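JOB MANIFEST
job_type = single_chain_structure
chain_count = 1
residues = 210
[input]
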Amino acid sequence: MTTLSAPHRPALPHMLRPSVIAGDFVYMLLGLPIGIATFTVAVTGVSLAGGLLITLIGIPILMLTLLACRGFAVLERARASFVLGETIAAPERQWKRETVWETTKAVLSDPGGWRDLLWSAVLMPIGIATFTIAVTVWSVALGMLTSPLWQWALPDDSDDTIPLLDSTSPGWTILRVVIGLILVPLAIAICRGTALGQAKATKFAIGRAS
C-alpha cells in the first residue's frame, strides 16, 4: 500500500519569517520608551547622589541607582537574547556580604554595575535612532504599497504637487506600488540589521565575557 506524503515546502529564510519581522520591529520600537526610562533613572540617580555625597546620603542613592540599572540590564539582555536567538549570560557578581559596609563596597566597586549604568544612559539615543529607523522605513514602504487604498483622499493634481506622492493617475499609482514592493524587503533587511547590531552591542556591553 502506497502512502502519499505531503509535498515538502521549503522553510522561509529566518529573516523573512513573520515572527522575526515583527520581533525586530517591536524590539526597535520599545527601545525609545525603555531608553527614556533607563536614561532618566541613571542620570537622575547619579546627579542626585553626587550632589548629596557630602552628606553621605548620596551613597545609598548611588547604590539604589546601580541596583536599578542592574535590573534594566537584565531586561536588555532578555530582549537582545530574543533577537539573537541565544541566551546572553549575566556577568558573575557577588554583591551580598556579611556586613552592610562590605556590601556597599562590593556594589560600588563592581565594574559590571558601572557598565550597566553607562549602558542605561546611552540607551536613550540608541532608542531614538532605532525607533526613527523602524517607523520611517516601514511607513514609507507600506505607504507606497497601499497607495491605491488611500489615493482617493489625495487632492486633485496641480502644478505645486509632487506627482510620485500626490498624483492619483493610474501610472503614478502603479509606480508607487512597485516602489513599495521594492522597499518592503529593504525595510525588513534594514530592521534586521539594526536590531542585530543593537543586540550584539548589548551582549558585548553588559553580557558575560566569554
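[summary]
The helical segments are 18-52, 58-84, 100-108, 111-145, 147-150, 163-166, 170-206.
The chain has a mean pLDDT of 85.
exit_status = 0
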